[in-house]
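My hope is that you will study the protein record below before we discuss the fold together.
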Amino acid sequence: MLLKILFGICLLVLVFCVPWYLKALWPEKCRKSLILKMICSTMFVSIGVLSIHISDNTSTYAIIMIIGLIFGWIGDYFLHAKPSDAYFVTGFLTFLIGHFFYIGAYVRTLPKLFPEYEMISAVEIAVEILFIALGLVALKVFKVKLNPIILKIGIYFYFAIVTFMFIKASALGYNYYKSGAPYGIVAFVLLSLGSLFFVLSDATLGIISFGGQKKNYRLKIFNILTYFWGQAMLASSILFIEA
């Protein structure tokens, strides 16, 4: 019972701290906003750890997901702590590594739980192409400028990876639901919506950072809300997925 209470407290801290963080970071980042951001980040890592203990799930899936969450925590620090290219690149790479851990968790788990699952399918390829096409349209609509060329390549690669993460997370959630597993619909929603929130958050961050939208507070609110709740939902999937 205590662990479930702590889990609920983590969710409540997110409910109250995320708006507080949004207020503190506007119009400029500051020490207070960094502290609040790291509190919020600590909550989604804590949700993952508590999910392990609540469900008694010490599977490889759970461990890999926790590692991904920790890389997200580190990335949050570097993207906020100092406005320098070195910190940005470090944060960018840290998040990319985190996505690889998430993908690893999903790709490893899918064939273990569902041997009939096709790792490469026409539907998933079509969805990936669709997301990339939408991303390219967004670049034009919001007049996003990605210079030098190495930045453009990096952003394109990152977006392809995060959308691939969404596809595999959704596939895992859908197959888990389709198998008739207990709380299958909950796991499906957590994985598909959580990963979609992550895609939307990263996309809006790109628009804010490179599309001249740094003064767009509403877009920033959307960016932050989708990010923290996306991470929390992915962390909560540990309650159900074990492999």
In short: Residues 78 and 90 are 7 Å apart (CA to CA).
